[in-house]
Amino acid sequence: SNVSDFQPQSWQTSSNEALKISLIGKDVQAGAIQFPPTFTYPIFGDDETIYGYKDLVIHLVFDSITYKPFLNVKYSEKLNDAIDPQTDIIDKITPFLPANDYILRDELQWVDSFHSERESFNLMLLCEKIDEYKKEDKSYGIYRVPIGELIQKDKDSPLIKFWLRIQIFTLLYIEAATYLNLEDEPRWVIYLLFNEEDQTLIGFVTTYSYWDYQGHESFDNKATKLKFNEKISQFLIMPPYQELGHGSSLYQSLYSYWFKQDTVSCITVEDPNEQFDDLRDRNDLKILSSTGFFEELKKKCMDEQEVKFVSDEWIELKRQEYKFEKRQFNRLIEMILLIEKK
Ligand code: ACO
Asked: Could you give the number of structural domains in the chain?
């Protein structure tokens, strides 16, 4: 043994670096795309550190169509008194994987398993398509899965099975994410974004709707239809497909899907991070620019070169028409006025 073996830090590894996430594409021969997780604290604790091994690599591999998980742990040396990786590492990860639906260590068994599953696998046939778009000659489709209702009706649905396989990506890439409690909350709806040609999953969104109470007068009037807010809870584009515009397309599709429904009164977002705020601002501005709202606002504010104040009533009316949240709509108006000043 050498001197460094006695230094505790030589036996510690960042769990963010040790864990390697890989995706195998449609063409298995082409190999895997590997990328790091952003967060591992939900699995390995707040220190995101693993003690007792050297050259530790934890492989968590999925095939990009069925998402059947494969898990393997490798290391060159283990401290004598370190706990066996079986119980130390594997037992920390498996509670986050679907019970009895992952393969440990045996890579051939895993390859066989997803190959045979692929033969009859087509989730797109099982759900409602709400939109589609093209990017560089490839077609993408957005599919709606009312997963909270589905789990009550058909626990064994392939869509449920698929969700239980992919949900770990929320923990790995969205800060403070937790697993959806589907059994207790039938209002959860997820949207899956697929490459239509090769069936690979590009991203997904979890959402739920909640009743928008508009005061007792409206409620007591039996003729008024109940209105709902739609909340985006977790929004994720799989790491290999980020920064290609998919997030924007997915967001725009969700917006127009909800915009068209007269029972939806407002579109909201739960704890957006900076990146999502940015995506939301860019796309909301695109929406408002395409409908002519920029000009409309300018006309309201400027009359023969004179700056006027826009009435709160008018802003509120427009906000309701576009179904934006109050705070977000005020931000958008400020941004538009800044853009128009230039
Ligand atoms: N070529 C190069 N760049 C492009 C292209 C293109 N064809 N198209 C868009 N971009 C740029 C955009 O201009 C933008 O750049 P900017 O950030 O400098 O303004 C950037 O790429 C991202 O835009 P999109 O591609 O539309 O967005 P993306 O598909 O990457 O999705 C998201 C963004 C959802 C944040 C994604 O990165 C992600 O999933 N991150 C990890 C999880 C996460 O943070 N989710 C949000 C948490 S908050 C919540 O869930 C409510």
From this structure: 3
